[in-house]
Design goal:
InterPro entries: Complex1_LYR_LYRM9 (IPR045291). With 82 residues, this protein is mainly alpha-helical. It has helices at residues 2-15, 23-36, 48-65, 74-81. Helix 1 runs parallel beside helix 3.
């Protein structure tokens, strides 16, 4: 759970790098996704590591969409893979 909170915090930091008018949408999107997966079912095929990897990849996609330097997500990558 601690790792998920660190990832969520880092995603929100990345949201601050987006254009001002898009920030509320992506902040809400991130929160909804983290809340939806807060309690994983033990029988679910989706592992936490897979979800963390998905969060990183989606963050890269959004950063690229708005021409934000991809290196901004280096800390997120470190958290997700660590």
């Amino acid at each position: 759970m601690r790792k998920a909170l660190r990832i969520y915090g880092e995603v929100l930091r990345l949201v601050r790098r987006l254009p001002k008018d898009t920030r509320p949408y992506y902040a809400k999107y991130a929160r909804e996704n983290f809340v939806n997966y807060r309690e994983l079912d033990a029988n679910d095929d989706t592992s936490p590591d897979e979800l963390f990897h998905r969060a990183y990849n989606h963050s890269l996609w959004v950063l690229n969409k708005y021409s934000v330097e991809e290196s901004a997500a280096n800390k997120l990558k470190e958290i997700c893979s660590g």
